[in-house]
Amino acid sequence: MTETNSKAAQDLTDFMETKMQDVQNKFQAMSDKLVSKMDEMGTRIDNLEKNVADLMTQAGMEKPQTSK
């Protein structure tokens, strides 16, 4: 009986380790995707700010900014 319990415990341990690894992999994939989307959004916001500043300069509402 002890051998059967030991085998069942090992099977359960293996199953749980596999499931926990799956969860970790899915979490990492979601985290990577989120970071990528945030980086993309940051770039888009930077471009939008530059375009708005350029339009304001063209409209004479703001002096051109000098790069440092």
Distance between the termini: 78 Å
Q: Strand content of the residues, in percent?
A: under 5%
Helix-strand topology string? H
Helical fraction: over 70%
User: What's the pLDDT, averaged over the residues?
Assistant: 91
Give the low-confidence spans.
none
| Envelope shape | rod-shaped
How many individual helices? 1
User: Helix- and strand-based class?
Assistant: mainly alpha
Radius of gyration, rounded? 27 Å
How is the main sheet built? none
Oligomer: single chain
**How many β strands by DSSP?**
0
Task: Summarize the structure in words.
The protein has 68 residues and is mostly helical. It contains one helix and no strands. The chain has one helix at residues 2-58. The longest helix is centred in the middle third of the chain and has 57 residues, at 2-58. The radius of gyration is 27 Å and the shape is rod-shaped. The mean pLDDT is 91.
Question: How would you describe this structure in keywords?
Answer:
68 residues; mainly alpha
Task: Give me a quick take on this structure.
The protein is mostly helical and 68 residues long.
Write the layout of secondary structure elements.
Layout: H1 2-58
